[in-house]
Amino acid sequence: MTRKLVPNRLDGREDAAKPWRTLALAVFPYYPDNDWQEIMYGDLRRDGIEIKILESIRVEPWMREILRDGGSVVLHLNWTAPISQRADNVVASMTGVLRVLDELTQFRELGGRIVWTVHNVLPHEMQYLSSELVLCQGLATLADTIMIMNPDTPRLVSDWYTLPPAKTTQIDHPSYLGRFPNTVSAVEARRAHGLNSDDIVLLFVGSIRPYKGLADLIPEFDKAHAKCNRLKLLVAGPLGPGYSNEQIDELFAPRAGLTAEIGYIEPDRMQYWCNAADVMVLPYRESLNVSVVSLAASFGLPVSIRRAPSSAYLHVHDWVSYMDSNQLETDLLAAGLRFHGDIAARHAANAAALATSPVRVAREFASTVRELASL
Predict the structure, then answer these.
(1) Fewer CB near the last or first residue (10 Å), C or N of the chain?
(2) What Pfam families has UniProt attached to this entry (predicted)?
(3) Rounded-to-integer distance, Cα 226 and Cα 223, Å
(4) CA separation, residue 113 to residues 240, 282, 369 (Å)
(5) Taking the mean position of all CA atoms in its chain, how far away is CA 150?
(6) Residue 157: which H helix or E strand, with range?
(7) Across 211-342, where does the E strand assignment appear?
(8) Quick one: 163 exposed, middle or buried, by C-beta within 10 A (0-12, 13-18, 19+)?
(9) How far apart are CA 142 and CA 136, in angstroms?
(10) pTM, whole model, 2 decimals?
(11) Rounded to 5 degrees, what are φ and ψ at 185?
């Protein structure tokens, strides 16, 4: 189903010269298990606007038809790696990038509009830097609106490409309130992991990938646990790219105080991890937008994140602390002790989640799409 836009009104009267128009949102890439995307498109879906999933970036016949008939097509571009980093060699990568930029140019010439969300400075698993830079600068030029979540994004990407300020807008990363059941008490959650109420529980949740720094964290946790055996570490999440089976076996070899479950976390099981913890620990070496911060806030869980240029904007929050790379052992224990039983920090995290609720953020994104459709 497609939504019909209501005609413009002048002085309370319908402008008869303005036809009813169709609006469709095209999306690339799209991951059906990505909660962020499901949240962002929620308001548009509720309004009956059709979300068209693209398998590749090209001007489709249905786009031409809608645009020819006076309707609007807005293309939402997300992660760049599927365009620049999936080729067999650098020549194929650059050829693919140039083809995509040509298709986007044609799309714009037909009257289509483009929103690009900057998810990363550069892809986490980088093979073809030159292609990526051509793509990112091309997207920055062609996009009508560039959406950022981290307010420092323009500065953080500036060594690689430039985001024009006039078309860059910030829409915060949404929390996950309502996306996961949250009925299990802390006592029940801890009991499920064999933990006591006086244990100091650190939690890492999310896909297991090298850039997230678990290989740095776990040896330092071992040292901290040796000094305070109340300190525990929970790790849960699926195995992502970048690690061999041998490396995973070594990383998660049996060790005191560590409980790990490598695999997909069912939505109704997330509460058993988050509600058992005192603090979410995020030793990411670098990451522009850390969605797990929003997940933690949704469960009223404080966060301790590694100090990095990309995480600087988070340090103003009372429910967020930071860890320094040269003293992870000390900072892990300090974070656990600080947030153990800290009700005020939990309330602050909950307030942050409410301020960036899925409904509010989806409405902001939908407003951006509608504004582009009216141009």
Answers:
(1) N
(2) Glyco_trans_1_4 (PF13692)
(3) 5
(4) 33, 36, 9
(5) 10
(6) helix 153-157
(7) 231-237, 258-262, 279-282, 303-306, 320-323
(8) buried
(9) 10
(10) 0.91
(11) -75, 165
Q: Which residues contact 55 (CB under 8 A, 6 or more apart)?
A: none
Catalogue all structural domains in the chain, each as residue range(s) with its CATH number.
Answer: 3-174+358-373 (3.40.50), 186-355 (3.40.50.2000)
Q: Which residues of 86-101 are buried (b: 16+ CB within 10 A; e: fewer)?
A: ebeeeeebbebbeebb
The whole-angstrom separation of Cα 298 and Cα 289 is 16
Cα separation, 80 vs 124, whole angstroms = 11
DSSP state, residue 125: S
Residue 262 in contact with residue 248, Cβ under 8 Å? yes
Checking DSSP bridges between strand 258-262 and strand 279-282, what pairing results, if any?
unpaired
pLDDT given at position 316: 84
In which residue are the tokens 């930071």 written? 322
Pairing of strands 9-10, 13-14: antiparallel
Q: Amino acid letter at 280? A: M
The two structure tokens encoding residue 278: 């005192």
Looking at the DSSP bridge assignments, the partners of residue 306 are 323
Backbone φ and ψ of 373, nearest 5°: -65, -25
Distances (CA, A) of 109 to 102, 140, 142, 150: 11, 16, 11, 31
Mean per-residue pLDDT pooled into runs of 10, the chain (375 residues): 34 38 94 96 96 98 97 98 98 99 99 98 96 99 99 98 98 98 98 98 97 97 98 97 91 95 96 99 96 98 97 93 96 98 98 98 98 88
Task: Assign 9 to helix, strand or coil.
Answer: strand
Phi, psi of 306 (to 5 degrees): -65, 140
10/94 Cα distance (integer angstroms): 49
Asked whether the beta carbons of 365 and 178 are under 8 A apart, the reply is: no
